[in-house]
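Entry 12.
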Amino acid sequence: MNRVLGIDYGDSKVGFAVNDELNILATPLATLFYKGDKDMLFAEIDKYVTKYDIKVFVVGMPLNMNNTKGERVAKTEQFIASLKEKYINISIKTVDERLTTRNSNNIMNQMNIKSAKKKKIEDTMAAISILQLYIDMNNK
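Predicted 3D structure (tokens):
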């Protein structure tokens, strides 16, 4: 089974999730508060690539609600280009991440998670949503 790393990429923090060995569920890993430090970001990714023998990256693509590409898409595409350059043997897929943060916040609200904690885990929750979308699309 190929292990997949789900990534919710942002300018200052990134959420990570990994699939289970049966490729049924996305499991949370962490939110990295890297504040633009690319060395720190790629050190964290290296850790997951090694620990889980990652074969695929799934990156959320932040399209606008009207399906156009905005400033966030350009930044995400730059990040993907950096991934391709560094991890030449790892496949990179994208999924439409519209509404993943909103859905994650709805779930956290239902779980009565306080807003201070939400800020710490919302990107991880979004990474879970991104990866679960990918898993579900590929298990059909």
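Annotation: The radius of gyration is 14 Å. Strands lie at 3-8, 13-19, 26-33, 54-61, 91-96.
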